[in-house]
TrEMBL record:
Native source organism of the sequence: Methanococcoides vulcani
Highest taxon of the lineage: Archaea
Descriptive protein name: CoB-CoM heterodisulfide reductase, subunit E
Residue stretches spanning the membrane: 28-50, 115-144, 164-182, 191-211, 231-250
Gene3D superfamilies: Transmembrane di-heme cytochromes, Chain C (1.20.950.20)
Keyword Membrane assigned: yes
Keywords: Membrane, Transmembrane, Transmembrane helix
């Protein structure tokens, strides 16, 4: 949901650019976001390196000795498992990715309620991430002088789907909280990591709605002054970058990457 910040920046930039200048405060704000983004991505890559090293400690085949933990071991083993020689159900990789990874049919068969929660959180998160990246790219292209599409026009194009997927994500979070509080099995299996993820996601979603509400004057803005929109959006973006990018390899969110890889290695199936 980080597109709200860049959308707010676009509106201000349109006004300032009409005067032929860009304020120093906007330069600092945008530079700060860029730095935070690079730091978050660097932490993410370090975490992925650690995970690949850990996954590379396993055996490359039945009865074989564990490997030396090279980060190349896991990709090589995965490629072999996905080949015709590897074991598994033999299901087409595209069927596996669509039905098992994307639509999560296994979770649906186990528990429709749990599936609804997962698909709402996963679908909303991924869609908002894609739109945020797209908005960011358009902003950068526009700032360097390539005017393919106006950031303001692109922002308006994304406004409705952004709202839709934001509420889908919020719905998934509400279902998750309800299950953790009132479904005995889910409550008893909840650990600290689960609570951290839910609290973090809730903060990100709520701050995104508040930042957008302040900027547009909707009820989520709670009547706060419009000049609070930039800092509110900046706060939302910073925690989104660190929680939704940097924290992934060190949290249970890693299953978003490990799960599909496992399914591909096993060639999906029922």
């Amino acid at each position: 949901m980080s597109m709200e910040y860049f959308s707010g920046l676009t509106e201000s930039a349109e006004i300032v650019n009409s005067l032929g200048m860009l304020t120093e405060s906007m330069r600092i704000t945008f530079a700060a976001v860029m730095i935070m983004a690079m730091i978050s991505f660097a932490i993410f890559m370090i975490g992925m390196y650690i995970n690949l090293k850990k996954w590379g400690l396993g055996s490359e085949g039945y009865g074989l000795k564990p490997s030396n933990g090279s980060i190349l071991t896991f990709p090589k083993t995965l490629a072999y498992q996905m080949s015709a020689k590897g074991h598994g159900h033999g299901q087409n990789i595209f069927v596996t990715l669509i039905l098992d990874a994307l639509l999560q049919r296994r979770a649906l068969k186990r528990s429709p309620g749990r599936w609804l929660m997962h698909i709402a959180i996963f679908g909303g998160w991924i869609a908002l991430c894609i739109m945020s990246v797209a908005m960011f790219v358009v902003e950068i292209i526009h700032m360097v002088g390539i005017h393919i599409i106006s950031p303001e026009v692109f922002r308006e194009m994304l406004s409705f789907p952004n709202d839709v997927f934001s509420y889908i994500l919020l719905f998934g979070i509400i279902v998750a909280i309800f299950r953790r509080l009132f479904v005995t099995k889910a409550r008893e299996s909840t650990i600290a990591f689960d609570s951290v993820l839910l609290i973090g996601l809730t903060i990100i979603v709520v701050t995104g709605f508040i930042a957008d509400g302040i900027r547009n004057g909707t009820f989520w803005g709670m009547g706060m002054q419009s000049d609070l929109a930039p800092p509110a959006s900046l706060f939302h973006v910073v925690i989104s970058l660190f929680f939704c990018i940097a924290y992934i390899p060190f949290s249970k969110y890693m299953h978003m990457i490990a799960g599909p890889l496992t399914l591909m290695a096993n060639k999906g199936g029922e």
